[in-house]
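Ticket reopened. Same input as before:
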Amino acid sequence: MCTTCGCGPAEHHHHDHDHGHDHKHEHDHSHHDDNTHEHDHGNEHRHHHKVDTTAKSITVETDILAKNNRLAAGNRTLFTSKGVFVLNLVSSPGSGKTTILERTLRDLNGTFAFAVIEGDQQTDNDAMRIAATGVPVKQVNTGAGCHLDAHMVCHAVENFDMDNLDILLIENVGNLVCPASFDLGENHKVVVLSVTEGEDKPLKYPSMFHNADVMLLNKVDLLPHIDFDAEKCKAFARRVNPDILIFDVSSKTGEGMNAWYEWLGAGARKSR
Amino acid sequence: MHEMSITQGVVEICESTAAGRRVLSVVLEIGELSNVIPEAVEFCFEACTKDSGLEGARLTIERIPGRGRCRECAEEFAVKAYYGSCPSCGGYHVDIISGEELRVKELEVE
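Engineering reply: fixed in the latest deploy. New output:
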């Protein structure tokens, strides 16, 4: 089923293995009576033959996110080999991610070949907005899930002509917490914060701002009308992540978008 | 609530390591900066282990405190959150050296 990423066969394998393994395992024990309990990789069943049945405690030391990280590494290898520049856009709901994408796609569509993955719990509303720009888009509905993971992305990209793609934009589920932990194989996480939110959001949700390389401070056209201290907000973001690159933008008026486009273009050319 | 996915990952790792044997207890290491709430994992653990080889297993979560090293003055110190500054020079350029762990440490099987 999952021929592209290889995850499916591994998973199936995994279950089959569990069953067949029971017998084999016990069988082996009478012959392998050493006391080695080293299990670096939970998924590498073949290593388990060494286990002594009398030993009850097993040292595991396996990263819980290892599976996602492995699939993300697979995605990254694919993106690199195809020369595609990939961004993972994260933010709270309503910061303007989709509007930023729409404007970016309309302004740059002739210059670069784009594709978009839209992550939402439900509806394909955002995918329809992106499709209206003429760019290939795949909607991923996570249902009860609060984030995209590397497995979802690995199947979503099967819908695109990766050989003829320059930039893949992944709009994650609107959520400033959970997507921070899940690598998708992107080049950079881009966090979007709008000036209608609190200026202390980087401190309230530090993991996301710590893990992002770029921050788009959106809706700056509204700054004259609201009490939002943009400099203070940027100082908070740099406290959490001193290296974060910040662009002030308005996806509505287009203010500041050129600097973002230049950065995007430079990344795409470098990835080719 | 990404703790549900995290806990499903824990169950997968334990089941493959246990290779068919019943799991009696699981020890996890969760760093204080890992963005994962131990109480939420405990809550999800019961739901995720139902009808699995881990049903009824005892869950122990060991917390690993955050520690950082200042890039300016090389001071090492406890980090409560990513925006913590260096107590020695006040700098924010801090490399995290522990506290981001998310690991299955060990299991006890039947």
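Chain A has two domains: 7-62, 67-271. Strands of chain A lie at 57-63, 85-90, 114-120, 137-141, 167-171, 188-194, 214-218, 245-248. Please confirm and we'll close it.
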